[in-house]
Amino acid sequence: MKINVGDRVSYPDVVVLGQTLIPAGVGMVMDVKADPYGKTSRQIAVVKGARKEPFEAFTSALQVVVEGGDQR
Questions:
Q1: d(Cα 34, Cα 41) in Å, to the nearest integer?
Q2: Is the pLDDT of residue 17 over 90?
Q3: Closest Cα partner for 7 from 31, 24, 25, 23?
């Protein structure tokens, strides 16, 4: 599934060394950009979630949320 700017997406917990940095939730995609290291064709989304600050996540880790419970 392709992630686009403006999509509502769900994201998993981000855990580093046993500590949850970003709890799972739902957010809005603000930007989609290429992998900054340029070694892969993966894309990175900038997501604005329940946190005050936007964060970046690989689009492969995100799932589009469709109103009414249906998944695209």
A1: 7
A2: yes
A3: 31
Q: What is the reported pLDDT for 48?
A: 93
**β partners of residue 39:** none
Given a contact cutoff of 8 angstroms between Cβ atoms, the answer to whether 57 and 44 are in contact is yes
- pTM for the structure as a whole: 0.78
For 1, 3, 17, 37, 60, the CA distances from 65, given in Å and listed in that order, are 11, 11, 29, 28, 14
For CA atoms 23, 34, 9, 60, the dihedral sign is: negative
Model confidence over 28-49: pLDDT tens digits?
Answer: 999 999 887 777 788 999 999 8
3-state secondary structure of 59: helix
